[in-house]
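Chain A, query sequence.
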Amino acid sequence: MSLKARVFGSLNSGASARRGYSSFRRACSRLSGLCVLLTIGAVGAVAAVAQEPSVTNSEKAVRAYVTNFAGDGVSVIDPYRGTVVAEIPTGTKPHGVAVAPDGTAVYVSNEGDGTLSIIDPTRNSLIETVSLGKEPNQLEVSADGRYVFVTLHGQDALAVVDVRRREVVNTVPVGRHPHIALRSPDGDTVYVTSEGDMKLVAIDATTRKPQFEVPLFGWPRVLAVSADGRTGYQTMRWLNGTLVIDFQAQRVVDRIAFAMPTFAPEGKDAHGPALTPDGEELWLTTQTSNDVAVIRTENRRLLRRIPVGQDPNWIAFTPDGQLAVVSNTASNDVSVIDTARYSVVATIAVGRSPKRLAIGTVETGVPRP
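Chain A, predicted structure.
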């Protein structure tokens, strides 16, 4: 049992894992000195703050997949050990990445050659390439794992790929220059940002028909959605913060804005948002100041900033919430953050211009003991 698991157990005897971890985080905020002393006593730099959780099937493990946009490949990372375990060639200019819900496949969209790479996580190898269309950007996998939704930035559409048939079976118009595709937590909706029309489009994941649109009055970047599906956090170019969307009202209801910097070159302010598994915090990569901004969702106030690498692009959490992984495009590395201590515990060199990343539990191919 890891050090954090033992402390977690003492704080939350009989409580659920989700509630217990939230309590541990709050306790660490109040007793930061004690938490640091306990952490130093463990063995190993990254293992000291987070050890890989035990799984029912020992051949499964948590992996982070990072697209190297200028390196034409994907780096596979073990976030708990802070190491790169594989480098996988893909198509040219890999942009988006997503892990199948059951962990049996990893999908990468290649902006340069208009293709989708399908990766076998067991062998860490490319097994299929599917033709998509013009400039595929971000992608998402359906809840049942049957379909992959990919925005075609150069085609003003959302491509729907049938995983079994390995081909595009539908192309849905979604407005000019779509960029981000994100599946709702219940799996019923795919949200797509239209940069050219400055809007967010909700698509029914089953019928592929538009449900509604949310005007954004600016250039949308990346979206995060709360676990209950009611609230969205949409970053915007030239906004150092995020818009808050009420999906029931289907409109923007608030704006979170930081005082500094007030204006960023090329509008590169807050970019990748991600919610902690407990939903209590929203983390934003801030490209201008090279850090991660942490916001309390309850009152929408800035808690702190965590320095990372240069030009941080994307952020994702491990399933247990212990670690956050950030891709740093300009410094060609990845930062691993201990979420209880709000500090970087590992910096991992990857390929050239890392952009998107996805974290999932996958088959490793290692036999059961």
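Residues 1-56 have pLDDT under 50 and may be disordered. The chain is about 10% helix and 50% strand.
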